[in-house]
Design goal:
The structure is a homotetramer. By secondary structure, chain A is mainly beta. Chain A has helices at residues 26-41, 125-128, and strands at residues 4-10, 53-54, 57-64, 73-83, 87-96, 99-109, 111-114, 117-120. Chains in contact: A-B, A-C, A-D, B-C, B-D, C-D. Chain C binds chain D through residues 18-19, 21, 24-26, 28-29, 32, 47, 54, 56-64, 67, 69, 113, 116, 118, and chain D through 18-21, 24-26, 28-29, 32, 47, 54, 56-64, 67, 69, 113, 116, 118.
Chain lengths: 135, 135, 135, 135
C-alpha cells in the first residue's frame, strides 16, 4: 500500500510568467503529476484506456509562500490525507531545499462515465486495496 | 469604481483533457483572465511594464460542480470580495447557462519586487481608488 | 463555403514568458483556435462527440517576425491553402495592427480512430462541401 | 563542447487532448526542454537573470508521424544543426522506443533587449565556445 510520493522537478521556461516566477496555475499541475506518480507507485494508472472509471477533481486549493523561478529544482510531496467510499483527499507540499514554496490540497471522486453523464461511484476494491492514509 | 466583471468564453480544444472535459487547472486561468479584464474595466493593467508593483497570488481555490467540454460557451463572473491595505480577495463563479460549473476564490497581495526580493506593500491610492467590494 | 477566418484575440498573462513575450508554442494554439472558429463558421465542429473522424496534425510551422506582449490585441488570419482527398493545409498570419508578428502553416489529415489505431481516410462529403481554397 | 542532448520524458495528463493524444503544440515545448537541458550540459543557462542577452525563436516546425499517449515514455533528441554569427539551428527527433513520433527544427537568434526593443547581436564568445554542430 502506498500513502505518499515525492517528485523532484525543475521549473521549465514556459511555466514562468512575465513576473519571472512560476504562474500559480502550474502548482495544480505539479500536484497532479505527483498524484499520478503515486498511482504508478501503487501499480495503477489513473487513466487506463477503456476503463469504466474516471476520477474528476471536486476541489483543489493552494497557498503560496515563496516564488519559484526558471530552472530551480523543487520537490512536490503528496500524501493521502483521507479516503472515503467515493472520494480521496491529498495534501501536498512544494519545497525548494528548506524553503516552503506552496501548500495544497486536492479531492477526487470516483465516477463512472457513460456518454456524457458522470456519476459518483464507490472505488473498486483493486484501487482501495492500494492506498492508505499517509503520515 | 468597479466591483465585478463577467467574461464570456468558449472552451478551446487544448483546454480539454483525455477525459473530454476541461482540465481542472484551467479554471484558475479563467479566473485570472476575468480578473485582468476587471482591472482593464477599471482603467488599469495588472502588469504594466516597468511598474514597481507586482501582485502575486497568495491563495487560490476551486470547487468543481459539473464538467465543461470542448466548444461549450460559459461565463466567468468575478467580484471583489474583500480589500485590505495590502490584499484583495475575489470570489468567482463559472456557469454554463443555468448550470453551476465551478466556484472559486483568489487572494492577491500588493508587492514590490527588487531584484529577486518580493516584499508586501500597501496598494497605491491610484489602485484602491478604483475598486470596491462587490454585491 | 468558407475559406478564411479572422480571429481577434488579446494576449493573456499566462501566455507570456519570463522574457515578457508570448512563448513561441502559443502561436500553434492561436492558429488552431482560428482553425476551429473557421470550422464553426462552416457549421461544423472539428471534434463532435462520438464522431468516427479525427483530424490529427501532420505538420505545423511558424516563422516569428516581432514579439507580442501581455494584453496586446492581435489578429489571427487563417485561410485554406490546399485541399486534397485526405489532407487540408492552412496558411496563417498573426498581426498586431500593421505589424507582422508571425507566419504559420498547418496540415491536417482526415483519419478514423478505432481503439488506438489511427488510419488516414477520405474527408466525408459533408466536410469537403464546406471548404474551398482561400484567396 | 556540446552538440546534442537526449531527454527522457513521460507524457503528463494535461498534455493529452480529448482525442487522447499529446496536443501538437506540446512538441515545441518538449523540444525547448531538451534545448535548455543541452545548454545546462554546456554549463550555461539560456535565461540567466539580469543577462543582457535573450534568445528569441525565429522559426520552429514539426512533422508528426505517430501519436503519443498519456503516461507513455519517450525520448527527445536534440542536436545542433548549424551555427552562424547570430543564429543557432537545432534538429530534433521524438521517439518512443523504435517508433518515430515527430521530427522538428528550431532556430534561435541572439539578441539584446533594451526596454521593449529587441536587436539581433553576435553570440558572445562564452556561448559560441561551448557548442558545435552535432553528428
Amino acid at each position: 500500500m502506498v500513502s505518499e510520493y515525492r517528485l523532484r522537478r525543475r521549473v521549465l521556461f514556459y511555466e514562468a510568467d512575465p513576473a519571472g516566477i512560476v504562474h500559480f496555475s502550474w502548482f495544480f499541475r505539479y500536484m497532479e503529476e505527483a498524484e499520478h506518480a503515486l498511482w504508478r507507485e501503487a501499480g495503477l494508472s489513473i487513466a487506463p484506456r477503456r476503463s469504466e472509471f474516471v476520477f474528476p477533481r471536486i476541489n483543489a486549493a493552494f497557498e503560496y509562500h515563496s516564488p519559484l523561478r526558471f530552472e530551480e529544482e523543487f520537490d512536490v510531496h503528496i500524501r493521502v490525507a483521507a479516503i472515503t467510499e467515493k472520494t480521496m483527499r491529498y495534501a501536498c507540499d512544494v519545497t525548494r531545499g528548506q524553503t516552503r514554496i506552496a501548500t495544497g490540497s486536492l479531492t477526487i471522486v470516483c465516477a463512472t462515465q457513460q456518454r456524457d453523464e458522470m456519476k459518483a461511484a464507490s472505488f473498486p476494491p483493486e484501487i482501495t486495496a492500494k492506498f492508505q492514509v499517509g503520515p
